[in-house]
Amino acid sequence: MEFYLLLLLAGVLGGLISGLLGVGGGLIYVLFLPMAFSYIGIPEQEIAQFTIANSLMGTFFAASFATFNHIRNKEFYYKAILIISSAGIVTGLLTLKFVVNTSFYAQDEFNVVIIILMLVMLFTTLRNAKRQSSFVEQTTKTKRVFTLTGTFSGTVAALSGLGGGIVIIPFLNQVLKFDIRKAKAISLGVIVITSLCMVIYNAFQTPETDVDQVSAGYLVFGISVPIIIGTLISASYGVKLSRKIPSSTISYLFAGFVLIVMVKKIFELI
């Protein structure tokens, strides 16, 4: 029972972070899921694949619940979302096929990727957090940069299970000068589309490990369903909370969660 309560808690935290920061909840899921899969007997050489697949599934639901609230408040920027998503789907699926779902990509490689991503995001977020209080939105729109954003975010989502928001938000906010809240809303919309495509792809894969639970490909429903239920509880509240706190505070919160994930993965690698 405690095992499933822990997964439910992961979902609650992930949903809250998704709505608040726009990164889809993967920052929380990649902390809990490796422990969960180790607990049910998944061998180390396939923990990365199961973690990524189920993190993306949780991320899809977290982002969907949060995006619904943005749509209801007329904060859905469909043109940017569609352009970024199109590139993200292509690179995400290619990365899953040729890198992630192979014998090469084991847990150590997965942790190294996470640590590198966290270092980059921590540096860029802290460097720009102080600027948010005096930030002036310019909303420069360019399909080329949107496509580049999708290309990188899809790759990162597939390699890490983080959903791609850790790439999308800095690109939109710091390169294209979108307000952090608008960047967050776009990020969530992109995550809904790209993560769904990758979840479907992972459902039709054939793991080497036989899972003694209801599953489809790399998706293990006994693990993912409690997370999804927790996400349902908190995602909309995260969106509401994000409207009440300053943009600079959102940036610092993002940096804090990035630091937690990075430290945890360093300890796992050691």
Structure in words:
Belongs to the 4-toluene sulfonate uptake permease (TSUP) (TC 2.A.102) family. It comes from Marivirga atlantica. By secondary structure, this protein is mainly alpha-helical. The protein has one domain. 77% of the residues lie in helices and 1% in strands. It has 10 helices and 2 strands, in the order ααααααααββαα. The protein has helices at 2-21, 26-39, 44-72, 78-100, 107-129, 143-160, 165-175, 180-203, 221-242, 247-269; strands spanning 215-216, 219-220. It has a two-stranded antiparallel ribbon. Helix 1 runs parallel beside helix 9 and helix 7 packs antiparallel against helix 8 (180-203).
Inertia-based shape: globular
Q: Count of helical segments?
A: 10
Gyration radius (Cα, Å) is: 17 Å
Cα distance spanning the termini? 30 Å
Return the domain count. 1
Helicity level, as a percent range? over 70%
With strands numbered from the N-terminus, the spatial order across the biggest sheet is: 1-2
How would you classify the quaternary structure? single chain
Uncertain regions: pLDDT < 50 for 5+ in a row? none
Number of strands: 2
Sheet with the most strands, sense and barrel status: 2 strands, antiparallel
Order of helices and strands: HHHHHHHHEEHH
Strand content: under 5%
Question: What is the SS-derived class?
Answer: mainly alpha
What's the pLDDT, averaged over the residues? 87
